Amino acid sequence: MDIFPISLKLQQQPCLIVGGGHIAYRKALLLQKSGAKISVISPEIEAQLLEIVEKSSGQYIQAHFEDHDLKLNDYRLVIAATDQPLVNQQVFEECENLNVLVNSVDDPPHCRFMVPAIVDRSPLVISIASNGTSPVLSRQIRTQLETVIPHGIGTLAKISGEWRQRVKQKIENPDERRIFWEELYAGPFKERVFNNNLAEAEKIIHQSLIEWNKPKGEVYLVGAGPGDPELLTLKALRLMQQADVVIYDRLVSGAIMELCRRDAEKIYVGKARSNHAVPQEGINALLVKYANEGKRVCRLKGGDPFIFGRGGEEIQELYEAGISFQVVPGITAASGCSAYAGIPLTHRDYAQSVRFLTGHLKEGSPELPWNELVYEHQTLVLYMGLVGLEKICEKLIQHGQRADMPVALISKGTTPEQKVVVGTLADIASKVLENQIQAPTLTIIGEVVKLREQLKWQDEL
Ligand code: SAH
């Protein structure tokens, strides 16, 4: 992040605009909305701008900036809005020397702060900034937000502000307080505000506060999908954003973690192969501990929690401890990787069934029902199979599978680093070695792999 967003309180604060034309006027309009005391320095001034200056009890200084004897650090901020790039640059340099916040309109290199695009639902104000890279994009996002954010949301924020102190007095614990507000906003209160039925809304908030009880903790076992954040389900996203604690493992991508509630406690229990950051029993115990403290815990797992995810074991423990839970399925690696690699897992001409297997080695050798795996017209999908790949291919050939059966190995599927290596049972292991493939990888074995030639739609590294 190259910029730090803040919201400035400018009521009655002296601000200076350099320039008296239309650009200056547009900036003055915005400053006026926030109650600033606006002064302008310029040899000439538009009538509308002068009116704003006077209304805000600022000062019009009729002079060229170059000749000024102003004390720039008397101002909270300065906006350079002349049509002379050199003058704007001079304003910038003088302000920088004095540590005064400065903006040069449409000139990002000469800005210490940028003015974002805004959606104004005062007291709620949403700002969108692009660090000067694309104001048009920011404005487009603003337009989208304008259409989806109800106008009553400002009133909602105002009433919430009026009750904030009382809620704080009654509910001391900040986590509990957050749950109070979230539950309040999820119920009829919000609708009453939006319909301007404010007396009724006040009654609801009053009653909810009287009846408030300490919440019970619960656990959401959530599938985060294979990597691409856009493959999350709506439910996963909602629960990720309301959880107080997120317990996640290695397969959950950074981009997905970014979507969790910012102030949630995030606990990494990652599992690299046979190197568990927190052993399974420890994870189960963590879930129980936090839920018993009344927290809403999101147990976030790669793919689908019930497919090679040990999700079942985790919720069994919750069941025994009497903790309520919900399970949210995710897109499993087989679905995600096959789709993004252009390999349909079934196809009327090539495969009528598909089988998910784990290639995880036990005592150095995978234990799989080899005879059942060599049927024609069956696609095999191998999870956790990178280390044992060579052995698995050998075994399949020994049990009668064709050595030229197509195989695809997908690394980091659905992410921007997705890589696909295609070969046959006979040569895939050596091709993988040549290509320096990184975990996680998924292997697809079957005739369907050939379809990739036609159906590949993703560009890869
Ligand atoms: N519950 C998960 C699987 C957990 S087992 C799911 O439903 O997808 C971990 C294995 O999943 C990895 O060893 C790898 O085989 C596979 N996997 C998960 N994400 C993957 C990805 N983005 N690309 C390739 N393989 C992946």
Q: Which ranges are low-confidence, i.e. pLDDT below 50, for 5 or more consecutive residues?
A: none
Q: What is the class of the largest domain in the CATH system?
A: Alpha Beta
Percent helix, as a range, is 25-40%
Number of domains: 4
> Ends: how far apart?
26 Å
Secondary structure blueprint with pairings:
Layout: E1 14-18, H1 22-33, E2 37-41, H2 47-55, E3 60-61, E4 77-80, H3 85-98, E5 101-104, E6 117-121, E7 124-128, H4 135-148, H5 153-170, H6 174-186, H7 188-194, H8 198-210, E8 218-223, H9 234-242, E9 245-248, H10 254-257, E10 265-268, E11 271-272, E12 275-276, H11 280-292, E13 296-301, H12 311-320, E14 324-328, H13 333-341, E15 353-358, E16 378-383, H14 389-398, E17 406-411, E18 419-424, H15 428-434, E19 441-445, H16 452-455
Helix pairs in contact: 1-2, 7-8, 11-12
Bound molecules: S-adenosyl-L-homocysteine.
The site of S-adenosyl-L-homocysteine (SAH) has 22 residues, from helix 13 and strand 19.
Overall description:
By secondary structure, the protein is an alpha/beta fold. It folds into four domains: 102 residues, 3-Layer(aba) Sandwich (Rossmann fold); 58 residues; 114 residues, 3-Layer(aba) Sandwich (Cobalt-precorrin-4 Transmethylase, domain 1); 114 residues, Methyltransferase, Cobalt-precorrin-4 Transmethylase, Domain 2 (2-Layer Sandwich). 36% of the residues lie in helices and 19% in strands. The chain contains 16 helices and 19 strands. Strands 3-2-1-4-5 form a five-stranded parallel beta sheet, sandwiched between helices. The protein has a five-stranded parallel beta sheet with strand order 10-9-13-8-14, sandwiched between helices. β11 and β12 form a beta hairpin. The two termini are 26 Å apart. The model has no long low-confidence stretch (mean pLDDT 93). The site of S-adenosyl-L-homocysteine (SAH) has 22 residues, from α13 and β19.
